[in-house]
Amino acid sequence: MEIINIKNLSFKYSGSDEYALSDISLKINKGEFAVICGKSGCGKSTLLKLIKREMSPNGEISGEILYLSKNLNEISDLTSACEIGYVLQNTALWSIGDTVQSELAFGLESIGLDPQIIKRRIAEISTFFGLSAKFEEKTDNLSGGQIQLLALAGTIAMRPKLLLLDEPTSQLDPISAAEFLNTLKRINKELGITIILIEHRLEDVFSLANRIIVMENGRIISNETPRNTVSALNKVKQNHPFISALPCSSVLFSNVGLPNEICPINTLEGQIFLAENFNSDIKRIENSSADETNSLNKNKAVEIKDVWFRYSKNSSDILRGTDITAYYGEILSILGGNGSGKTTLLNVMAGLSRFYRGNVLINGKKIKSYSKEQLYRQNISYLPQNPCDVFIKSTVFEDYMDITKNSSSATDAESSAIKMLERLNILHLKDRHPYDLSGGEQQLSALGKILLTKPKILFLDEPTKSIDYFSKQNLKEILISLKNEGIAIVLVTHDIEFSAEVSNKCALFFAGGIVSEDVPSKFFSESEFYTTSAAKISGGIFENAVLTEDLINLCIKNGRIIQNKEL
Q1: Which of 89, 150, 190, 401 has its CA at a distance of 20 to 30 angstroms from the CA of residue 442?
Q2: Which of 479, 471, 472 is nearest to 503 (CA)?
């Protein structure tokens, strides 16, 4: 039975001449778990918002969207509110209640349910989602993963038949993301709720989904099972670029598999595929793309020495004797769980939060001895977790011109702004309002603005949040070029794969301090949970393959087991 039937849907935003969606036709059956993916700006979020009537953007629309065989515009407000649930990227911004209990009750109270029914539903939902122990907790005290889980619980309490989610794991650490996705699996299998999920992090969702829908330039180019997605994309274009954005096991298969073999779609299947098909005489990859580094000959940019920090006199310490050093000409990644204190550490390193014990040194000089002018105009730039905090003008270009206004001439200012837009491949966003951009577009636009300040030390808080695989590759090239120019870069991230690709050093923050620090090839090959998909697949077979390209290269060098034939 079809729960959603989209017929010849086209849409363009008000004031735009280009279609965000072009002739979309799509059927979603009751009980399916469908994943929509594609490059940033391909139309994924627009499509999802149009299915949720209350979220529909303003613009010109043609075609038809049917919900349970009825036009979406003809269903009642109550039906739309209850039966079609929607979970956003950043649910913290939309939180209503000040406690877990009041947040769960809000939606149910807004539709006028009897108090006894509300109490029963809240009790059931709290138990199902493991929130009983947090029932009276203030929402401000919850971690990012707990807030996202609470938002999901509040939506499910309304008893939806269809659940729409727009990149719900984009701000979660790997462990919290896996727990959240496993909860979605339970909701789909145990409650029979149909799920349509937009996600850039495809590694963990392929095994959950019945269907992978790939979009490109406002159109659907592939609508297949996860296992058949590689072959479907190759039919669109041989070696289609989006294959590189698929899970590691599928990318591996695409590069070294044979036509008659079954495509693996998760870590376990990748391990079996690797063990059964390839020799392993060569255990290690030499000169891994996860570059090793030697900091002995580099100058120290930022030093954190025995630093202690708490937000108030009576609160617990977030930093507890923390020590870490960032060098010029290097990229340092700091990883750790949601709510562990990574952003706090970054704020202290950047002089945005005052510590009460220890020392922070910038260029060997105590940070307290710098004036704000010296610190933030001549040394440091900071990209916060919410990129909207960076924007103050009505268009991206106006924001860029505001930064370059002190150039020698208006022509130089405009030239600098245009060059930065081109460098980030976002020139087409030049005249857009920053708040009208997608999350990924906001992230890149904000980065461009702070880079125009020409920093010597660059702090980035979750720079890959909400951006697609291809934008990450562009960002990777930009950060490496900045590093090669001698800039020190410190980034806090949940993005394990990106950290492995771009960093010279990786550090794990836990219990108020740095508990582990090493080069990526060692850091990730010796970790169990905070590690890459390639390392998980190759563990026990190869020793230091932490990137997908490392894994592919080792397979090619070792050759296939079958009939001892080399690839």
Answers
A1: 150
A2: 479
What pTM was estimated for this model as a whole?
0.88
- Rounded to an integer, what distance in angstroms lies between the CA atom of residue 446 and that of residue 449? 5
Which whole number is the average pLDDT over 408-428? 89
Helical residues (DSSP H) of 157-247, grouped into ranges? 174-191, 229-236
Q: Which residue has the tokens 């959240």?
A: 180
**Backbone phi, psi, residue 425, to 5°:** 60, 40
Residue the block writes with tokens 């809240």: 122
Q: Are residues 192 and 70 in the same domain?
A: yes
- Name, in order, each residue with C-beta under 8 angstroms of 286's C-beta and a sequence gap of 6 or more: none
Would you state the structure tokens that stand for residue 409, as one six-digit string? 């001439």
pLDDT in tens, 516-549: 999 999 999 988 888 999 999 998 899 999 999 9
pLDDT score, position 468? 87
DSSP three-state, residue 418: helix
Residue type, 212: I
Angle between helices 469-484 and 439-451 (to 10 degrees): 10
Give the C-alpha separation, 178 to 195, whole Å. Answer: 16
CA atoms within 13 A on the CB side of 481: 9
Between CA 533 and CA 529 the distance in angstroms is 10
**Tokens 């562990």 sit at which residue?**
340
Is there a single domain that holds both residue 237 and residue 361?
A: no
Can you tell me the distance from the alpha carbon of 352 to that of 389, in angstroms, rounded to the nearest whole number?
A: 14
CATH classification at residue 218: 3.40.50.300
Could you tell me where the DSSP H helices lie in 157-294? 174-191, 229-236, 248-256, 267-277
* Residue 223 in domain: yes
DSSP letter for 138, please. B
- Digit-coded pLDDT (tens) for 481-502: 999 999 999 999 999 999 999 9
pLDDT on residue 96: 66
Dihedral sign (CA 64, 67, 72, 74): positive
